[in-house]
Amino acid sequence: MITPEPHILEPMVRRLAYRVSLDAADREALLALPFTVRTVERGGYIVREGDIATRTSVMLSGFSVRSKTVGSGARQIVSIHMRGDMVDLQNSLLDTADHTVEMLTRGRIAEIARNEIWRIAADRPMVARAMWRETLVDGSIFREWLANIGRRDARTRLAHLFCEFALRLKVAGLADAGQYELPMTQEQLADATGLTSVHINRTIRGLEADRFIERDDPRRIHIMDWDRLAEVGDFQSEYLHLRDGDTVIV
Amino acid sequence: MITPEPHILEPMVRRLAYRVSLDAADREALLALPFTVRTVERGGYIVREGDIATRTSVMLSGFSVRSKTVGSGARQIVSIHMRGDMVDLQNSLLDTADHTVEMLTRGRIAEIARNEIWRIAADRPMVARAMWRETLVDGSIFREWLANIGRRDARTRLAHLFCEFALRLKVAGLADAGQYELPMTQEQLADATGLTSVHINRTIRGLEADRFIERDDPRRIHIMDWDRLAEVGDFQSEYLHLRDGDTVIV
DNA sequence: CGTAGGCTTGAAAAGCGTCAATAGGAGTGG
DNA sequence: CCACTCCTATTGACGCTTTTCAAGCCTACG
Asked: What is the rounded distance in angstroms from the CA atom of residue B218 to the CA atom of residue B223?
């Protein structure tokens, strides 16, 4: 018996169909999009500040971050991307990229020309709707991050990020139970939370000391008790706009 | 001679046509959208967290802010809206609002049913494109705010906000030279920048002492020298995606 | 087996928050 | 028109969270 090879763009279709119902023709049209696959090393760039946007990149594997650099040289990570995310849908209508997208780990991306995206959006209303929805969820996450960085202390901020990670990984099918491998260094966690790596270290160790999480290896997070972690992280999953079953970790 | 009464939705059309070219038919279709006008008092709500989104509100006059409240009770303002902004385009595809929109000043809004927005977007590709672009610019501003709050110190953060305000007011035709009336209290500025009102006060006074700005009345900001303020605020206007002529204050 | 990147920890400093008190102005009711 | 209240702005004193600077350690990898 032969299992048919899954289509490379399958993660994108799965994502778009997550909360908008796409019919067979929609799915077929999506899978028929012309694309090129590229493997990018850890630290490699998908988009650089100032680039002219000509294509959208779909994450197939690995993790990437979108970041901005301020005048002092400090960096702020504004979003984290994983399998299924369409990384540059955001910028497809704007002239030049105002940020950088960089791989956190080695991974593969599928690049789709911008005009192909526009064409399918014009032809297939439900696909347009699904993509539109993705960007709105993105915006919702940006707003939550603003609240997180602007108004929560270090412990809450970090616990919140760990919760978000857990759910998004679960939805992307990349982690199951309450444990996962963090794809970020403590310095990157610092850039994502608006803290310093030293303070991230102390805060992680504090969460560990108080048994919210456990780590065998510095990057492997075990969530001891989802409810407790969500509480200390002031985490409510609504902003991720997930399906009901996906809003908690068992 | 009679000057024809300008149409109430004119500010919205002007905004949408700002960087996407809309033809006469597009404009007509936009102006033909059914709407209801509502005057909202200072402190009144346009959207409340948990509301089910059924309509989009176009700001006709006055100012509003979008905010989220965290567990500790602290509030984070995530965006500021003025004439021409379509406040709820963001949430039109998502189930329930994950934030609140509140008037900073008395003002008028035009409410348009969500399905009307969808209809015109489906019928008129360039209108869809213009609205899509608006939400992308919104996202770009969220990202800049994340960098601002996460990685800049209080003085830079506040100066940056003052610069953004100056340009947006100018583009909306609400302020001309380098001076404007701030529609926000210092406490609201604090909620927008992730600081406290006490520290905002000290920071404003510092900017004043060093002659970046002048104030006769606590709310009236005079920008002494745009280049200096932009420098201290680490402000580069690209993220607002304005037309070339609109990127500086005379 | 040496080097580099990431993690960890200590000590001290700085920026920003908290608490508290005062003052001015706008609106309100008598 | 005055007394009263509420809201906003302002300032001082103090304290705490987070940063900065610095050093040591571990592990992966060439």
From this structure: 14
